[in-house]
């Protein structure tokens, strides 16, 4: 569960889920998906050219009494997996390295039963994840000759 700052135009999308609620037709959704796919700033990985999953709930969004949000006849929520997240992983790795090299806070975790090697293992796992996203950002379809 993580909110983070990244620039999605720097990466390629692997999957997008758009969940509509309220007065929305499937035609509206199709037009939006087509418009988004035709934008040059939105790129998908080669192995997932469609990349969209959409859901429509015809019930209008409810408003919580006393809430400052305005009532709306329709809303959309988008969840996306993009390779631009690699920048966040790089920042986390850098900050981890700075703190771990100074052994900052390590004694608290070791005192609670964690081993120091688990820090290194977690760092290696995050590096592997970062590398996976970097690889996904590259052109992934290679033509092989039989």
Q: Can you walk through the features of this model?
A:
The radius of gyration is 21 Å and the shape is flat. It contains four helices and three strands, in the order E-H-E-E-H-H-H. It has a three-stranded mixed sheet, with helices on one face. By secondary structure, the protein is of the alpha+beta class. Helix 1 links the parallel strand 1 and strand 2. 38% of the residues lie in helices and 17% in strands. The longest helix has 22 residues.
Brief digest:
With 146 residues, this protein is an alpha+beta fold.
**Distance between the terminal alpha carbons, to the nearest Å?**
44 Å
In round numbers, the mean pLDDT is: 88
Q: Which word captures the global form?
A: flat
Spatial strand sequence of the major β-sheet: 2-1-3
Can you write the helix and strand succession as a string?
Answer: EHEEHHH
Low-confidence stretches: none
Which helices and strands appear, and what pairs or packs with what?
Layout: E1 13-22, H1 26-37, E2 52-57, E3 74-82, H2 86-101, H3 106-111, H4 116-137
Parallel strand pairs: 1-2
Antiparallel strand pairs: 1-3
Helix pairs in contact: 2-4
């Amino acid at each position: 569960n993580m909110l983070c700052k990244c620039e999605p135009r720097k990466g390629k999308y692997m999957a997008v889920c758009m969940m509509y609620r309220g007065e929305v037709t499937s035609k509206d959704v199709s037009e939006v998906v087509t418009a988004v796919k035709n934008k040059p700033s939105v790129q998908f990985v080669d192995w997932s050219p469609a990349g969209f999953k959409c859901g429509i709930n015809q019930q209008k969004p409810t408003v919580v009494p006393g809430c400052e949000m305005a009532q709306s006849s329709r809303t959309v929520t988008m969840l996306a997996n993009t390779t631009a997240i690699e920048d966040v992983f790089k920042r986390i790795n850098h900050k981890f390295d700075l703190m771990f090299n100074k052994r900052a806070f390590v004694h608290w975790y070791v005192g609670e039963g964690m081993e120091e090697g688990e820090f290194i293992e977690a760092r290696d796992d995050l590096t592997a994840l970062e590398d996976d996203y970097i690889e996904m950002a590259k052109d992934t379809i290679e033509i092989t000759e039989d």
